[in-house]
Amino acid sequence: MKLVLSLCAMLAGAGLAAAATGPDYKRPAANLPPAYDEKTAPEIRWKPAEPSADKTRGAWWETFGDESLNQLEHDAGQSNFEVAAAVARLAQARASANVVRADFWPSVDLSGGATRQRPSENRDLNGYPAHGTRIYNDFTAGLTLGWELDLWGRVRRASEASVAQFRASAADLASLRLLIEAETASDYFALRALDSDLGLLRSNLVAQTRALELVRNRRVGGLGTDLDVAEAETRVRETEAQIPASELSRARLGHALASLTARTPAQLSVEARPLNANPPIVTAGIPAELLERRPDVASAEQRMIAANASIGVAKAAFFPTFRIGGLAGFDSLDAGSVFSWPSRLWSIGPGVTMPIFEGQRLTGRLKLAQAVHAEAEANYKQIVLSAVQEVEDNLSAQRLLAAQQSAEELATESANRALAISLNRYQSGLTTYLDVATALTTVLDRERAVAELRGQRHVAAVSLIKALGGGWDPVSATFAKVAK
């Protein structure tokens, strides 16, 4: 008995001290540049909100100072069904990690049974035929013990992989939340830009209708022509036709916002309000921060860690598996004496299983694990590269759209001066209404372009914040306790 216990203790100690098979994880080089090419404005008016203890990222949308947007973001975060599904997937990953981690500990089971049986008379019993064997009862109760000694680190690598998968799921949830938040903000600002567009169309329609009345009066007085009236009517009808198209686009964006907040279109009404303010300036920081700030990068790295650990699991399968097994309990043919001291039984001892021939199964699993890791590493590098591209694209959009808007605003001022001049010349009889109609169209086009660019700048600011990872906190998001 002492020899058996000593041998079990030695094997258990060896299992705890043994090194895990397979490569240890090392983050591959991402080849990030020291700085972005695009230069943003020197003034910094946007800062990621500090995440609180119960949130994975700051409420970055509050930077825009729009209460309607704040409410929509809150509703989307609380009610969106895609987010709810991702939360459920995270719970699945946490449970799976806990299942794998349980292999570190011995399994102890309580079992009991009562059987009534009649052995075959033709079976061998202690070397003699069992003729005349009677029918008897058998009562058992006891504990069974099983424990795999992790000599080669199979359990450790499997646990490492499962925890990495859990962290990847946490990062996926953070990435989805950020995507929903960004989509909500982008749709909201696009809707507000359409409110501005509709306001311009309606105000210009009023001005063009008044101009049409003026042209008709001049025609009645003999100062105008039928061509002038036709030109004025054409401009009015063109503007009237553009209003339903903008209203349709606004309705679709409203429906999209309703879906994002888990409501039907009839349950959500966004009050019309033009977008008059310019967006805040978003600064990018240094590219290396993307590896820590972007949840999709974190997710890709965790999957690479899991794939790396799976190589160790596959390599450990080539070595013997040592287990400690034990049994302690009672066995009796009589129910009244089943728990008496003479009915006791026990057994304990190590066991070993060694793979001899697996028909290339183990080699195939190792090659599969190595290929999965190679794919995960390539995906990680591509995601990092795409992250840098997204930041660069939106830094360019932030700078160039601002420059374009400034130029369009100057063009609008010039178009308004040209309209005033052409209107005066027409009223003085120095030109036809065609010049006035052309000037009116130019002013409307320039004003609509400014409104559209203002909306695009807001969407670009949202896209840049998303590209930078929002206010995501990788510590609280992905390194939470597995067991909970």
Provide an overview of this structure.
By secondary structure, this protein is α+β, with helices and mostly antiparallel strands. The protein folds into two domains: 19-104 and 152-320 and 361-478, Outer membrane efflux proteins (OEP); 109-149 and 321-354, Outer membrane efflux proteins (OEP) (Single Sheet), CATH 2.20.200.10. Helices cover 59% and strands 11% of the residues. It is built from ten helices and six strands; from the N terminus they run αααββββααααββααα. The protein has helices at residues 2-17, 67-79, 81-101, 154-220, 226-260, 290-293, 295-316, 361-427, 433-467, 474-478, and strands at residues 107-117, 124-125, 128-129, 136-149, 321-332, 344-353. A hairpin with a 2-residue loop joins strand 2 (124-125) and strand 3. The protein is elongated and about 135 Å long.
Helix-strand blueprint:
Blueprint: H1 2-17, H2 67-79, H3 81-101, E1 107-117, E2 124-125, E3 128-129, E4 136-149, H4 154-220, H5 226-260, H6 290-293, H7 295-316, E5 321-332, E6 344-353, H8 361-427, H9 433-467, H10 474-478
Antiparallel strand pairs: 1-4, 2-3, 4-5, 5-6
Helix pairs in contact: 2-4, 3-4, 4-5, 4-7, 4-9, 5-9, 7-8, 8-9
